[in-house]
Amino acid sequence: xxxxxxxxxxxxxxxxxxxxxxxxxxxxxxxxxxxxxxxxxxxxxxxxxxxxxxxxxxxxxxxxxxxxxxxxxxxxxxxxxxxxxxxxxxxxxxxxxxxxxxxxxxxxxxxxxxxxxxxxxxxxxx
Length: 126
Prior knowledge:
By secondary structure, this protein is mainly β. The protein has a single domain, classed as Protein of unknown function DUF3599 (Thrombin, subunit H). The chain contains no helices and 8 strands. A 6-stranded antiparallel β-barrel has the order 1-2-3-6-5-4. The chain is globular. The protein starts with a strand and ends with a strand.
């Protein structure tokens, strides 16, 4: 069922000339996931609200293996399945079998594209 793949990114700090620099660093690649951009868990996931003057963000739910290396606040870049870069929002929920963790569920929200230092767009499809 986890037919999509992604790269998990985590924000890390590095010191450059005595100044802290923050960057998104890959934690693991080729992570199995099912990203459902049409599914909303009522009472858990935020619902869409219109805002004037900006396009809508794609949101949904990501389903991961119980052992996936994800944390709240991480980002994922989809490498197979729906394209885009998504932020893991809210808490990572654990779904349990009677004796073991079965899978993880987490709300996802698309990260808006932005220009990088080279003047190229990043965030979508990377």
